[in-house]
Amino acid sequence: MRIAIPAPARMILAGAVMMLATFGCTRGPSAAPGLRSRAPQPGPALARLGFTIQAGAFSQVENAARLADTLQGLGLNAVYYASSPDAAPGRLYRVRFGDFPTRAAALAKAEALRESKVIQAFYIVAPEEPPLPRLSPRDGDSLRANLVDTAGNYLGVPYLWGGASGAGFDCSGLTMAIYRLNGLQLPRSSRDQFAKGSPVPLEEIQKGDLLFFATGSSGTVSHVGIYIGGESFIHAPKRGRMISKAQLAGYYRDHLVGARSYL
After folding, report:
1. What is the phi-psi region of residue 258: left when phi exceeds 0, alpha when psi lies from -120 to 50, beta otherwise?
2. Domain 18-44+187-261: top CATH class
């Protein structure tokens, strides 16, 4: 179901920088007064990732962003993530990248990157392996629970840009990373993410679905966040701000375009 978009509003994201002009990070009328859980319904299938490579254990998120940027420059789709919640002591940031059909292919690439000193120690991640082994489902759907837990681990991470590839997280880079860390190839831009998903009425939204907003003068999709329940979502608001939790109310309710599911 497409929700009508009201008159365009002012932008909330900082001006176009690097890939932001291409990868818009999204408005519509208020829907139901409250959001209800719905019975699981299939969305369009996303391609599954194969074997990936994990490298790095950085105490500074900027260092993880730099490595991700270097790997992006080599044509490898890289994302970084926090290996523990924001409140946990000794929080580390790791990088995962690539998509290989076999463990042997991933190992060969990792060895070549280590030989060229792009990475040092590494770990080959199997397709079925979650981003954080400590995660366990808290509801009936383990994948949705893991998506929400993965998003929660980004809370407090700065909205960063890295080098020419923009490896830091704008809004759609964040949602792509969350899905990629759970083995699903979500498109990179918010507009492509919106087009790929299956429309979901707000009264039927589930955890792990994405919310899209129009925050620019064009009135088109330009911002996205991941729904975590309780009429809340996690998103990368804008440069200079931390990845944070927000309520689907006020400004965001007024600028909502719609919700999409992929599961």
Report:
1. left
2. alpha beta
pLDDT, tens digit (0-9, with 9 covering 90-100), for 111-163: 999 999 999 999 999 987 766 654 454 444 788 988 999 999 899 888 775 54
Helices marked H in the chain — which ranges?
61-73, 103-115, 142-152, 171-180, 190-196, 251-254
27 near 251, Cβ under 8 Å? Answer: no
pLDDT digits (tens, 9 = 90+) for 169-199: 788 889 999 999 999 999 888 899 999 999 9
User: Angle 142-152/171-180 helices, nearest 10 degrees?
Assistant: 130
pTM of the predicted model as reported, rounded to 2 decimal places: 0.78
Give me the active site residues, please.
171, 223, 235
- Reduced to 3 states (helix: H, G, I; strand: E, B; else coil), residue 25 is coil
